[in-house]
Design goal:
TPR repeats lie at residues 915-948. Keywords: DNA-binding, TPR repeat. InterPro entries: AfsR-DnrI-RedD_regulator (IPR051677), BTAD (IPR005158), OmpR/PhoB-type_DNA-bd (IPR001867), Sig_transdc_resp-reg_C-effctor (IPR016032), TPR-like_helical_dom_sf (IPR011990), TPR_rpt (IPR019734), WH-like_DNA-bd_sf (IPR036388). The structure is a single chain. This protein is mainly α and 1003 residues long. Among the domains are: 13-104, Rossmann fold; 108-153, no CATH class; 178-306; 756-861, Winged helix-like DNA-binding domain superfamily/Winged helix DNA-binding domain (Arc Repressor Mutant, subunit A, Orthogonal Bundle); 877-981, Serine Threonine Protein Phosphatase 5, Tetratricopeptide repeat, CATH 1.25.40. Strands 2-3-4-1-5 form a five-stranded parallel sheet. Strands 10-9-8-14 form a four-stranded mixed sheet. Strands 11-13-12 form a three-stranded antiparallel sheet. Helix 4 (108-119) crosses helix 5. The protein starts with 12 loop residues before the first strand and ends in a 22-residue tail after the last helix.
């Protein structure tokens, strides 16, 4: 994910450097929405009192002048400097924040979403290739998307030339906007490295380039070079280790066309580079370079000697392409096994099976673990197990046998076979240890870690993943590294470490993307999506799950059930009942035939929750089945679902048993999310303890960072009958955040929120069942006026005669009694158009009086008054609460009825309360030394009450104390004029240092 897209940096000075088209300006506009910002181009300006100043296109400004400008700028003004090229002389600026291409580039899931939504490209594999070709460079992504709309379908190897060939928009953009600013020396370097794979300063020097570091640094900082995955695969104590980079492929395509090399020079360049790659053990790059240099014998030698190492380092695609380039008749068994393994890693499962089929009559351990792994990755564990068990192992143990046992253990884990999974994992570790093979040992520890999730041993789970990761890193096995990190993200999810899980999953996904590890990528995406969902970042999560679904569908894997579960959960949170049901049912349909319990159990549980209201019998059967099959961590959560189904059917004794058993399991597994879920279930079982249980559950979720659940529980607690004002206010704020995230509050403890929401502050508006009522919905204006009168009475019973006189002044009381009954009937039908509630649900009536039941509707003025009183009681601790209250006052009560006497009392109460809030905010700002904030609130008071003497004097005092004497003098002149206008002699100007009175009262 791009790291800076959601919020602006807080540094005093931010420097944004990237080539054209990286979205620098767009990102700044997104960051600065709502800020007072000035924009300047190609000049160093004189600044006023801006919050933020943006300076763009500064390459021509002398470094000394720019540095001096930054140093003399006011401390309160945040500076954002933007340039296509690095700006010298700023590195030593204190607190400087650097934003570069890596921060601005689009992540793969976002690229896929853009291509799908804006250009109609739904092919996930094509979206992946576009991300690879553009490295997420925003302008190149959009130019490529537009090109794909009009270009004919093209084979993968010809795609770069089709997108960025001469005459295309991408070619023109790169040539004129990207390459033009560079000096001739940098262009010569570009001309050479455009033909190579990974590049580094060492490679450039080996090719005869003197002092390449400055040019490479320039290309890296502007985004033409991007890091390769080998820096993550090689341990830093390896003497051959050095960071390597690659030219963005579409840029390389344009460079090769714009500044071509002769064939002889290109072959010589590639052979020289291949020799360096081999010495550095960069196998994929060596194979590709020798192949493109027409060195047939050379690339065959590298494949036979180091092909397996090349796959492990993340070059499966290069190894596979090289072997595919050979005629099938020239591929012996060794090369076929290597090709099949490369195809498996890159997700070409059908082709891998066809490749392995050529040797199926000689099924040894080496072929069996590779063949069985394909079945496992397609979520066909029984086919994998059948393959593994056909092998008769030789007496001599080896690496292939260790891999066979570990792969077999994973298939047993998938079907929940605890005993065999553990036994096979231990055998794999023992065999790998005797052979001293780090890659096989890493695989064995991964199997042991996954077994620990079934046996309920979180300590062993973490320890085995740690060992697996260390071994994979020692072996330089990037595919294993990405797999272990993706799995470790799952462990962190189970324990409730959502921010940590997200970081780990995104790191795994980035590794998997760069090395085409399709066996790992969608797993990492699913784990990242789950973390994002619970952190409240629903749209991002939906993107990742959708991307994972399309990848699994292309792979032909039944593991597509996993991202479907993620999407189903999101639909459920959003209240999209039918979409959630369909996704859960699809996940069950996919997982059931394969026997994959790791997907089937949560699918059955989710479906049970969705159906528990409309079909409790089916829900009970599904929940019972899930709980019966569940093992390890999934058992606690399945029991909780079974408990909810019992609650909704009225069987509280069964529900209590499920909650207690689930809580015990959750504590044993260190499963904080399940502990919180069990507490929520207890709240439903015992209403007397509901408030305490919900508070404890919210605190538990808060530790995990799951803002979605924290807000959900706070909203529910605020709706409990015994909630206090603070709980209700906090609950309303939480519910508002949930609505903003598109989340619907669903729980037996939280009955459907009031169907009616009424706005009275400023514009009068009534919303019924989420739809704003137009004037035509009222049928009668008198029914609408009746509601306004009842709102002004704030829930108090009001005599029918008094209401009738307000609606039909001066008319005979006998005649208007019937009219009032009709108006009441119309009002009830407007508020409850489907007549689902009792007659007195909204309107309480007796023979002599009528009232609106304010507990059954949401009324903004009532919420405002309650929240204001709460914030004022908090005193100096209430500043944040009061600021939120102030925002909710959007106008006077029923200001479109300015002359109706019945509205006056509530209008004056609301206005007076608002003034108390603003006075309190002004005083708190003064005490905090926040001059600008204090001035803002004092001016707001004077806007509403221009003849109120004390705010005038407070404003003069605050301006004087802040050294703003000219403004203070003008403020005093306005005060004196206002006092003279009402015949009051102005007081003397306040002396420096005089304090405003805490209550804002006059002298």
């Amino acid at each position: 994910m791009n790291r800076t897209a959601t919020s602006p940096p807080n540094a005093r000075c931010t420097l944004v450097i990237a080539a054209a088209g990286y979205g620098k300006t767009e990102t700044l506009h997104r960051w600065l929405r709502g800020h007072r910002a000035s924009w300047h181009s190609a000049v160093v300006p004189d600044l006023g009192d801006e919050d933020v100043a943006v300076l763009d296109d500064l390459a021509a400004v002398p470094a000394a002048e720019l540095r001096a400008f930054v140093e003399r700028a006011a401390p309160k003004t945040r500076l954002m400097l933007v340039s296509r090229l690095p700006l010298p002389g700023l590195a030593a600026v204190p607190g400087l924040r650097m934003i570069g291409p890596a921060d601005l580039a689009l992540p793969p899931a976002r690229v896929a979403a853009i291509l799908r939504e804006q250009y109609g490209v739904h092919d996930a594999n094509l979206a992946r290739r576009v991300h690879g070709l553009t490295a997420g460079w925003p302008a190149l992504v959009h130019l490529t998307g537009a090109r794909l709309v009009t270009a004919a379908p093209t084979p993968a190897e010809l795609l770069p030339a089709s997108i960025a060939g001469p005459g295309t928009a991408p070619f023109g953009f790169v040539e004129t906007e990207v390459l033009a600013p560079f000096e001739p020396g940098t262009r010569r370097l570009l001309r050479a490295i455009a033909h190579l794979g990974p590049v580094s300063a060492g490679l450039c020097r080996a090719l005869g380039v003197d002092s390449p570091e400055p040019a490479l640094d320039l290309l890296l900082r502007t985004g033409l070079l991007v890091p390769t995955h080998n820096t993550a695969a090689r341990p830093h104590d390896d003497p051959r280790w050095a960071p390597t980079y690659r030219l963005v492929p579409l840029v390389a395509e344009v460079v090769r066309t714009r500044w071509p090399l002769s064939e002889a020079k290109r072959h010589r360049l590639l052979r020289d580079a291949a020799g360096w790659y081999e010495r550095m053990r960069m196998i994929g790059a060596a194979v590709t370079a020798r192949r493109h240099a027409a060195d047939h014998s050379g690339f065959l030698r590298v494949l036979r000697e180091h092909g397996r190492e090349g796959i492990a380092e993340g070059s499966a695609a290069a190894v596979g392409d090289a072997i595919r380039s050979l005629p099938p008749a020239s591929r012996d068994r060794e090369l076929r096994l290597l090709l099949g393994q490369a195809l498996t890693v890159t997700g070409h499962y059908d082709e891998a099976l066809a490749t392995f089929a050529a040797d199926a009559d000689r099924l040894d351990a080496g072929l069996a673990w590779r063949l069985g792994t394909v079945h496992y990755l397609r979520a066909r564990p029984h086919a994998a197990i059948e393959t593994f068990e056909r092998v008769e192992l030789p007496e001599v143990e080896g690496v292939d046998e260790a891999m066979l046992h570990a792969s077999h253990a994973l298939a047993r884990w998938m079907i929940g076979d605890l005993a065999r999974s553990g036994e096979l994992s231990e055998r794999a570790l023992a065999v790998a240890g005797r052979g001293d093979d780090t890659a096989a040992a890493a695989m064995a520890h991964t199997a042991l870690a996954m077994h620990a999730t079934l046996s309920g041993d979180p300590v062993a789970n973490a320890e085995h993943y740690e060992r697996a990761l260390g071994l994979a890193e020692r072996a330089g096995d990037i595919v294993q590294i990405s797999r272990v990190r993706a799995n470790r993200a799952g462990l962190l999810l189970n324990e409730g470490g959502y921010p940590e899980a997200l970081a780990e999953a995104l790191a795994a996904a980035a590794l998997a993307e760069t090395c085409d590890a399709m066996a790992v990528l969608p797993v990492a995406l699913c784990n990242a999506g789950e973390a994002l969902t619970l952190l409240g970042r629903i749209e991002e999560a939906s993107d990742l799950f959708g991307y994972a679904v399309s990848l699994y569908q292309r792979l032909g894997s039944a593991k597509v059930a996993y991202p479907l579960l993620g999407l189903a959960d999101i639909h459920h949170w959003r209240g999209q009942h039918q979409l959630a049901r369909a996704a859960y049912e699809e996940a069950v349909r996919i997982a059931e035939p394969t026997g994959d319990l790791q997907a089937l159990v949560p699918a059955l549980s989710g479906l049970a929750l969705v159906l528990c209201r409309e079909d409790p019998g089916t829900a009970k059967r599904l929940a019972t089945r899930a709980a019966t099959m569940a093992t390890g961590r999934r058992a606690a959560r399945a029991l909780i679902v079974r408990g909810w189904v019992a609650v909704l059917s009225g069987d509280l004794e069964c529900a209590a048993g499920m909650a207690g058993e689930a809580a015990d399991l959750a504590r044993r597994h260190r499963d904080k999310p399940a502990v919180a879920q069990a507490l929520e279930l207890h709240a439903a079982i015992d209403p007397a303890q509901a408030a305490h249980a919900l508070a404890e559950a919210a605190t538990t979720w808060q530790v995990t960072g799951a803002t979605l659940h924290v807000d959900r529980l706070r909203a529910m607690r605020g709706r409990l009958p015994d909630s206090n004002a603070a709980d209700r206010i906090e609950g309303r704020a939480a519910a508002e955040r949930l609505r903003g995230a598109g989340i619907r509050l669903i729980s037996p403890l939280a009955p459907e929120p009031p169907q009616v929401s009424i706005s009275t502050l400023g514009r009068f508006e009534v919303v019924v069942n989420g739809v704003t009522l137009p004037p035509s919905a009222w049928q009668s204006r008198k029914a609408r006026d009746l509601l306004r009168i009842l709102l002004s009475r704030r829930g108090r019973m009001t005599g029918r005669e008094e209401i009738a006189e307000s609606l039909w002044p001066g008319e005979d009381s006998g005649r208007v009694g019937h009219r009032l009954s009709v108006a009441l009937s119309v009002l009830r039908s407007v508020l409850d158009p489907d007549r689902r509630a009792a007659t007195d649900h909204f309107i309480r009536a007796s023979p002599g009086a009528v009232a609106l039941d304010t507990s059954r509707v949401t009324i903004d003025v009532e919420d405002f008054l309650e929240e204001a009183e709460h914030g004022l009681r908090l005193g100096k601790h209430g500043r944040a609460v009061l600021a939120g209250v102030e925002r909710h006052y959007t106008g006077d009560f029923l200001e479109d009825e300015p002359y109706e006497e019945w509205a006056v009392a509530t209008r004056e109460l609301a206005r007076a309360t608002y003034l108390r809030v603003v006075r309190a905010l002004a005083q708190l700002a003064v005490e905090a030394g926040d001059v600008d904030e204090a001035i803002r609130w004092l001016l707001r008071i004077l806007d509403l009450s221009p003849y109120d003497e004390q705010p005038h004097l407070d404003l003069v005092r605050v301006l004087s104390d802040g050294g703003r004497h000219g403004e203070a003098r003008r403020a005093y002149q306005r005060y004196a004029a206002a006092m003279r206008a009402i015949g009051v002699a102005p007081s003397r100007p306040p002396a420096a240092g005089d304090r405003a009175r805490p209550d804002g009262a006059g002298p």
